[in-house]
Amino acid sequence: MGVIEETDVEQVTLALLDAANDRDPVVQEQVRKSILTLGNQQPDKVLSMCQDYLLKHPKLVVGHRVVILQTIELVVKSRIDDISYPKIKSVIQLASDEMTKSKEVVPEWQQAASNILVAVGNKYINDIMEEILRKFQPGVLPHFFVVQTLANLSDSNVYGMVPFLNAIMGTMLPMLGMTKQDNMKWVFSSALCHFSESILEYLANLDKAPDPTVRKDTFSSEIYSAYDILFNSWMQSRESKLRLTVAEALGSMSHLMAHDKLEEQLPKLLPTILGLYKKNSEHYIISKSLCQILEASVNMGSRVLETQIDGLLVALHQQICSPMDFSNPPTVKNHNEVLRCFTILANTFPDRLMVFVLQRLENSNKRNRMGSLAVLRHLINSSTSIMETKRLLILASIRQPLADHSNKVKKRVVQVISAMAHHGYLELEGGDLLVRFIIQHCALPDTYHVQTTVTHYHISYLTPDQHDSLRSMCDNTLHLFTTTVGRLTDVLWPMLLCYLTPNQYANATTPLCKSLILLANKKQTAQEPNFIIDFNAQVLTLKLLKLMLHFPQVNAAFPFRCRGHGAPSLSLLHAISPNIHPKAEPLWENEIPKLVNYFEGLLKYTTVMYFLYRCIGVILQQCYNKELVRKQLQEILIGTRHNDAIERTGVAMGIGLCASSHLDGTLEKLEEFGKSDAFRKASGIFGLLKDKNDVDVEKMKSTLILCYGYVALHAPEDKLLTRIDSDILHNISKNFNTKVKQSALFIECFCTFQHIESWLSSGQDHERERAVKTTAELLQFYLDNLRVKNLVTFHNLGALVGRLAPRCTDPNPEVRRAAIDCIYRLMYIQLRYEGFSLDYKDDSVEGLLVVREKLSNPDHSVLYKTCSELTKIISKRLPQQQLSTLLFMLYDGLVDAQSNCSRASSVILNTLLKNRGAGLQDLVPEMLEVLHNRLQVIGEEQVKVAIGQSILILATQHLQTVVNTLVAYPLPYDSWSCEMWIALGADSTLALQIMEMIIEKLNVMVPYVDKKESMLRPGLTKVATSQPLAMTCALREMMLNGQSADAVAYLFPKLFSALLVRLGSSVGVQLPKDLNNICVSLCCVLSVAVEALRILLGRAQLDAVMKPLDQEGSLELSCCFLSHCGKIKCDHFEEAILSNRAMAKHAGPRLPSIVESLCPSLCNIYECQRITVTAFFSELLNHHVVTELMILDMLMNNMMERITDTCGTVRMLAVRGLGNIAVGSPEKVNKYAKELLAAMSSGMEENDDPGKLITLEAMSGMSKILLYLDQKNVHLLVACKYAMRICAPVIGSEQISAMFQNHLLEEKGLHHGEFINDLTKYLIQDFPGMLNFYHITVIQFFKSNWAEIRASAAMFIGKKKNYSIVF
């Protein structure tokens, strides 16, 4: 048996050596691996064969020799300890000869030989040096790769080489003067660099070195002699590559030079190195060399270095200011080396360096400032002790960059602040400014925006991407402060609370709340006394009051605003509840959810600020501290934006509510405010200049009059009568003039409308008619009395139009006509506010009169057409800032009791979205949320369809935002969320884009995470990640829409591939814990993927493929599907064409695209995905369609790659697939005979195969190949015989092994019948338990297209039956 094995190794190795000349690098790599496998078993034998092959074929092409030499290197590296010494000697001789055979430099060939010597040198350094030094003789220039090999040896075996280096450099030094060619200069310079680094490593680890007496001065003389030639001669070369290598060598050599010599050379050396920056585009090597020289100079205490410091700092600063390209690693390395230079200089010249950096920080040039900030950050982190005394100076100097307009500079500033936080800077005076800077940029808006509020720092113009990047960076930094910088806890608590109330920080609410929650929980858990805030201080009391008001405000708005601030705000309120009141926590748990619902209802009609001031009024109404009430009223009146009509109204309502409990104090404060300096209009020079703008003062008077009006409305009746004349009417008359009349007029009309509004949607026709006609008269009165002298905004236009427009299709014709009259008058009121004259007529508005006449026709089609015309007019005249209010009012109209009006609301809504929706990106999440809520209460089917159209329109304009919002909805999707996804499938083009987007994300997202289920149970559990699960559900819902069929058909290969891989990733995966208890529709992760795949196949009309998906049992279902899917599409392909042309159209021609889409998943890190795709490909190979579609080569190559996969199941499936070629494409077996036999042989020799599944599959595949032995193809016959002889020893039957070795000889014939007879007999005797397996395998060949194959299969089965009876 041993002789046979040795012969086999020789034959296989020889065949592989022949194959090493293949042009395909993949084949070459496989050859190397295969020979290495053999070499690991018999290293001496394989090395001998490689050597003999090279010696017998001296004229091999270079590429062929290289592959063989590389293989020798692999074997040596792998089994160096098992190779005999004589063989080592012969390998050394071979590699040396191969390396120097050609005097010309042939890099690929000679490098391969050199690598062998380096590999051997790791253990046999003396033998290597004996051989190398024979070719490294004094007075004769050596071969290029002799020097290169010495350099590489010094790297790989430091302790072995350093003892030789003194002698080597002694021989080398005279050679340097003889060298004329640049390539030799380069290799000598490189070698000196490697030698120096090896010596330094040796000296740094003397405790491990074989000779601890070695000292630096042992090499100083030779190093300096080499330095002299390199610096004074070779550094002047015109070849940039040589200059850089010389510079690199000088850097390493500087550590070994005598101190006096280095000191003497520094005035020339440093300027020369710095000068290289201008001569070379590649700077990393220069900076690395400079860093080493500086380090050597500082270590020896150089005095000369101080004279060079100015030039060094300027040059280094220029380098640190160079842009760093992360896609170009050398630029990143150069940046890091320059920072190391600054660190070295900081240790010796801290004051000069700090003055230099801080001066450069004052330079407004963006690049200079960014470089200086990078240095400052590095010094703070790396030179803590040195920077300790300069912390206050740095804090003062950092203020100037805080105001820089550049986004890139701001990012660097954030990095510096983060470093300062870890080293105690923020705890010093002025540190709060840096915290404020971070919070200010956490509050950056979501779109293009200019900060108009007067703040300490300027917010520059930024694109949305820049906003996201900088804001995200600041969010993370703030989170870092609260989680990892423990010393900041007392700095940030409770300071961060103060940033929650100012409006300019509104967009930072979410990160602020999260940080405060962490701080509060940390302090409460640690029972720190300062968790309970001392509110005795007056300022903190007011801050707390603002905070209490702020949180209802942010939760009253839609929770998706300000980056989803709703939930974090409420969580913070809960976290700090002990600071508010002992009973606050149960209040939060029981009452706040009800308040949130109430707030949302209120905010349908107004703005956040309007609502906030009403909240203030309610709270002050309940407050007993009169002094606090007075101060709060003062702050409200001074802080109001009087130019904003809605805010003025909100302030007046709040003060009116306060007056219901504090009438005297409120009237007193209003009178005081009316007499304040804010109302005085002092004249300037000659009365031509005014300190106050007339318009501002008049609007303040409007606010004051409004306040008196609401005080009169809410004041207690028993007190009001005594104060109405003396305090209220008297003060109104003092401030009343023509400009203020307009405000009073508006208030009167608006209040009247509020009383009428509820009747507009009454169920009684006469009530709606009276309400709309009254509104029309009210608006006519307002229009007739309106006098506008300054351009202002009609803030209520959107709300009024949104409330009245749906009535234009009311069942009552009188209501319809009156509603049009209202719209007509509202449009002209808007025109008056825009500055048009009283007699101006607008053509588009006049068109409403034509629309009015058409509304007399009760026909539904006429009404809706007229409604569209009305909407076009509204869209043309409505200001952009009014659009959002109008839309949200129309959302209310969708649930109008009159179906005509609800339909009209949907028509107007969708027309407006089509014409004006492109500018509403910020509102998309909120609009989708409202539509989701409306779907739950709408019963009118036509309106539901219209809502689907609304979602489609929004998606057309804001696709990414719509998809991201809907994907983020909680799982499992409720029926209304599903309807929204189904609606997106109605437009084939849009559905195509969304599906492509989802497919792309599914292909790169993590399908699950491994989590420890319990501390008591060992092992990890696979838990599905939410986003891919949600996207699979989304695909499922979209494909349910029949109108998505075109998109599904176009994307079928990609969809099928993505869902097939998703299915494989879902087996054995659990739902996230937050879904386990609530999930009804998602019974398991796998079922979601199966259902989506079932719907896809249904859309593709592949009903036969769907059958396994309709069966029960999800786990068995997936396995059944993987197998059955291939059979339906492949095995019965001809029959499918005859019986179902649609299936053939979808399944057949698209298989190549499906295979191409699945191929990338074969290299995925997730075994489940590789298993799924390999199983699918394996089954495809079982059918002839892969040959007809010309994808056999692709599948074959993929299976060959998978037989080396790290996963045993993948390898088993790959072997199965290769064996299936004999069934699916028997005519191709001859073409792939060599590869197939090698794969089967490899499979039967598999070591990592606990259940012998791979071995069994390989034997099964080999059994299929056996049936080809009686074919007339000589090459196939020879290959089969050879394969069977090779595999015989591993079958486990001495009888079969002997029979194969004796009868399956290449030069001898074979009596096929007798052979099958004997083989069957031995199989039954030796493997009785495998008979069913053989039977099932061979029966498959009854379907073969070749008569000979079917005959052989029948013969085998017949013989088996006969012998089964005998035995």
From TrEMBL:
<dbReference type="Pfam" id="PF23227">
    <property type="entry name" value="HEAT_MROH2B_C"/>
</dbReference>
<dbReference type="Pfam" id="PF21047">
    <property type="entry name" value="HEAT_Maestro"/>
</dbReference>
<dbReference type="InterPro" id="IPR048465">
    <property type="entry name" value="Maestro-like_HEAT"/>
</dbReference>
<protein>
    <recommendedName>
        <fullName>Maestro heat-like repeat family member 1</fullName>
    </recommendedName>
</protein>
<dbReference type="InterPro" id="IPR011989">
    <property type="entry name" value="ARM-like"/>
</dbReference>
<keyword id="KW-0677">Repeat</keyword>
<feature type="domain" description="Maestro-like HEAT-repeats">
    <location>
        <begin position="766"/>
        <end position="995"/>
    </location>
</feature>
<feature type="domain" description="Maestro/Maestro-like HEAT-repeats">
    <location>
        <begin position="1266"/>
        <end position="1358"/>
    </location>
</feature>
<feature type="domain" description="MROH2B-like HEAT-repeats">
    <location>
        <begin position="257"/>
        <end position="605"/>
    </location>
</feature>
<dbReference type="GO" id="GO:0005737">
    <property type="term" value="C:cytoplasm"/>
</dbReference>
<dbReference type="Pfam" id="PF23210">
    <property type="entry name" value="HEAT_Maestro_2"/>
</dbReference>
<dbReference type="InterPro" id="IPR045206">
    <property type="entry name" value="Maestro_heat-like_prot"/>
</dbReference>
<dbReference type="InterPro" id="IPR056282">
    <property type="entry name" value="MROH2B-like_N_HEAT"/>
</dbReference>
<dbReference type="InterPro" id="IPR055408">
    <property type="entry name" value="HEAT_MROH2B-like"/>
</dbReference>
<dbReference type="Pfam" id="PF23221">
    <property type="entry name" value="HEAT_MROH2B_1st"/>
</dbReference>
<feature type="domain" description="MROH2B-like N-terminal HEAT-repeats">
    <location>
        <begin position="36"/>
        <end position="254"/>
    </location>
</feature>
<dbReference type="InterPro" id="IPR055406">
    <property type="entry name" value="HEAT_Maestro"/>
</dbReference>
<dbReference type="InterPro" id="IPR016024">
    <property type="entry name" value="ARM-type_fold"/>
</dbReference>
